[in-house]
TrEMBL record:
Keywords: Repeat, RNA-binding. The keyword Repeat applies. It comes from Sinocyclocheilus grahami. The gene is LOC107573965. The keyword Zinc-finger does not apply. This is Embryonic polyadenylate-binding protein-like. It comes from the Eukaryota. Residues 1-64, 74-150, 166-243, 269-345 form the RRM domain. One of its GO terms (molecular function) is RNA binding.
Length: 467
């Protein structure tokens, strides 16, 4: 597909689609090597941002030095863009300031997210774009254009600003607390700029709100003294107010941290047991493995109250789990031999199986394919010892000698049935079309000088060979 798309621009030397090492799925980008630089420049100028399978493609010069991409030199950030601005519109807008290496509008399944990046070849071009475009109107929206900052720089800057917060979030108070009561409670810590209690469609309090102080010191003191304090029988939570994206990111980091701690805690101590008899339940499973150490949990997986034939046993230490694997794997319990091994996460098991599949596939590809002989090899089902194999020879005015005494009596040519043999002499050459299923008929004809040609319906190509 890529060759058909880009070959009109010029002669292509090579195309490489980058794929995942394990799954072999496309990573969504590729490299195309043209024979002439002018052809590559033509493709860049005429095909950039064209749509392939419903998605616009981005074309840029291949940068072999990753330092240029990662340094951030010449890279700018644009936000507050109108949703109608796509990659091509952004490229056309900023190309007046210099040569653009890459240009991208960040999108999700719903379209543009309102921000993007433009990477110029030089820092001077980026500076000109910032000076000219920052604060300008694009499709009736005032855009912000500034220098690109890496994630570490943004997190450090955001962390410094977060330490100087003035907005406080309060939750878990009763419906009897309205705006005036909340303001009177927190006004003792300092001057407040705004107080808000969130309500539902009926005007009733939802049990949380915000208080914005004039300075950071008052807000910090309110958090320190009021967080965890009881108010009308409820324990308050008071903390720094966060934006939704920041709060979601923080919750995600906490979840990943807890997940990793759980994985490390159970690494090497959780066993997978399969081929369980239907009579084995949680208690019997625990009893079978109890002699090998302290069991923290034992569970037989069920479906509708019936055993699915496998379960898990978790020990308190890796040594106990290893001992249980050694002793219990293959042991017969209730007429069935158990399979016991260390439990693996789904991602690890999937990666291992995919790797094994790729190794088998590579070994199959490494086996050389059998060489097909150029001459016909006779089948063992026919007795054809006297039929010579085809040899390359020149035919002039002579015909090969035939056996003087035939083995069979001469038969008249058949007018109906399958075509047995066709021969033609032309320009000192010979070709023959042979039907493998009727090869014994061909042999019979070669034994009789009186039979020189028999015509019939054409032979199917799948059963024919050109000699």
């Amino acid at each position: 597909m890529l060759y058909q798309k880009f070959s009109p621009a010029g002669q292509i030397m090579s195309i490489r689609v980058c794929r995942d090492v394990i799954t072999r799925r496309s990573l969504g980008y590729a490299y195309i090597n043209f024979q002439q630089p002018a052809d590559a420049e033509c493709a860049l100028d005429t095909m950039n941002y064209e749509v392939i399978k419903g998605r616009p493609i981005r074309i840029m010069w291949s940068q072999r030095d990753p330092g240029l991409r990662k340094s951030g030199v010449g890279n700018i950030f644009i936000k507050n863009m109108d949703e109608s601005i796509d990659n091509k519109a952004l490229y056309d807008t900023f190309s007046a300031f210099g040569n653009i290496l890459s240009c991208k509008v960040v999108c999700d399944e719903n379209g543009s997210k309102g921000y993007g990046f433009v990477h110029f070849e030089t820092q001077e071009a980026a500076n000109r774009a910032i000076e000219t475009m920052n604060g300008m109107l694009l499709n009736d929206r005032k855009v912000f254009v500034g220098h690109f900052k890496s994630r570490k720089e943004r997190e450090a800057e955001f962390g410094a600003k977060a330490m100087e917060f003035t907005n406080v979030y309060i939750k878990n108070f009763g419906e009897d607390i309205d705006r005036e009561k909340l303001k009177s409670i927190f006004s003792e810590f300092g001057k407040t700029l705004s107080v808000c209690v969130m309500t539902d469609e009926r005007g009733r309090s939802r049990g949380f709100g915000f208080v914005n102080f004039e300075n950071h010191g008052d807000a910090r003191r309110a958090v320190t003294e009021m967080n965890g304090k009881e108010l009308n029988g409820r324990v308050l939570y008071v903390g720094r107010a966060q934006k939704r994206l920041e709060r979601q990111g923080e919750l995600k980091r906490k979840f990943e941290q807890i997940k990793q701690e759980r994985i490390q805690r159970y690494q090497g101590v959780n066993l997978y047991v399969k081929n369980l008899d239907d009579s084995i339940d949680d208690e019997k499973l625990r009893k079978e493995f109890a002699p090998y150490g302290t069991i923290t949990s034992a569970k037989v997986m069920t479906d509708g109250g019936h055993s699915r034939g496998f379960g898990f046993v978790c020990f308190s230490s890796p040594e106990e789990a290893t001992k249980a694997v050694t002793e219990m794997n293959g042991r017969i319990v209730s007429t069935k031999p158990l399979y016991v091994a260390l439990a693996q996460r789904k991602e690890e098991r999937k990666a291992i199986l995919t790797n094994q599949y790729m190794q088998r596939l590579a070994s199959i590809r490494a086996i050389p394919s059998p060489t097909i002989p150029s001459t016909y090899q006779q089948s063992s089902g026919y007795y054809m010892t006297s039929v010579p194999q085809h040899q390359v020879r020149s035919f002039y005015n002579t015909v090969p000698n035939l056996r003087p005494v035939p083995r069979w009596t001469a038969q008249a040519p058949r007018t109906q049935g399958k075509a047995l043999f066709t021969e033609q002499f032309s320009n000192n050459s010979c070709w023959a079309l042979v039907n493998f299923a009727d090869f014994h008929h061909l042999y019979m004809m070669a034994e009789h000088p009186s039979i020189t040609q028999s015509r019939g319906p054409s032979l199917p190509p799948s059963r024919s060979v050109l000699c």
